[in-house]
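Charged multivesicular body protein 7
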Amino acid sequence: MCSPGRAPPGPAPVGDLPPEWETDDERMAFLFSAFKQSREVNSTEWDSKMAFWVGLVLARGRRRGVVRTCLRELQNGFERRGSVPLGLGTVLRELLRRGKMQRESDFMASVDSSWISWGVGVFILKPLKWTLSSVLGDSKVPEEEEVLIYVEQLQEKAEEVYRLYQNSVLSSHPVVALSELRSLCASVCPDERTFYLLLLQLQKEKKVTILEQNGEKIVKFARGLHAKVSPMNDVDIGVYQLMQSEQLLSQKVESLSQEAEKCKDDARIACRAGKKQLALRCLKSKRRTERRIKELHSKLDAVQGILDRIYASQTDQMVFNAYQAGVGALKLSMKDVTVERAENLVDQIQELCDTQDEVAQTLAGAGVNGLEMDSEELEKELDSLLQDSAKDPVHLHPVPQKEPDSGFAGAISDAELEAELEKLDVCDRDLARKKSSASSEPQTALGLNL
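Tokens:
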């Protein structure tokens, strides 16, 4: 029996199933029955049953967090009161046709053969099965033990593996050991087979490449979320070897430090027991170990210095590439720009500005309705008008002034009010006569006869 998932095959929990699973026997009997050979017989029932099982199969895989399954596991998972769905094979064939699932053998065949050569020892490749699958296509109902892959979940988990690497200390260099990567992704990959499938997906997306070096498989990741991985070169291998040397030296130094501390404790115990010679031997051993630690520290410093220079050179290379790209872009943007053309352009702008100023001055000096007016004549006429108005002042009846009394004068009589009103009427008549006499004379304004 296939074992594609983490959990053993078995009936699905009641909470993961639709409500009618336990309550509607008639409905479930219809859903558990086999599909008609032709959809045209009753397309409505066929589509209804297919939609039910397609959603349930995909939801089961996503809920369990697995990328692999098979027909037998699904039959066991959807067992109900001793019976299994008879149409699951047709459902899986439909999922294969839609691209929601893929045969594991077809998936491996879709990856470049040079990329999966490292995985031959893990996968049991069947070239004959691949050939038959490529000839028959997805029209063939999958076998009970044939492993199928949830395509979307495989892509999502592969992206999760890539994010785990990017957020880990291993991302300091693009090349890592396969064993270290496997330990890092233990929470995402339930088994080794799933781990290799995820790596194959990353290889298919050109995000990683794998090489075997001295019997050990190493993985190179692409730098950047949307970048493509470059082929592994001698520099990558050399840096990886330096990193491995640094790790081994660090482990050796730690081990020798513990050994030196143990020799010191042994010498102290021997002294307390009165074993002087044994204590001297322990001290000599401690000093030899400390000399080895000092030598290893020197070597470790040298390796770390080389690695630091390599990382600095990689940064310098990145900056150099950025400068080079900037120079290229600047050359393209300044391709048609020269000093002579810039000066010519500035001269043209200045000429246009001068022309615009002249036009504005010409328009400002134009007369209204084609008549030009002399400003001096206008000023003289304005002065004459002012002099005429000064010669003929308007006479108004003076307001009577009364000295304020020290006390309250009392109310004004009616006779006094009538006398004041008569005086005002006389002033108004004189003013009206002056206005009528003035309007009867010809008027001249601003040199124009009106």
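The longest helix spans residues 276-333.
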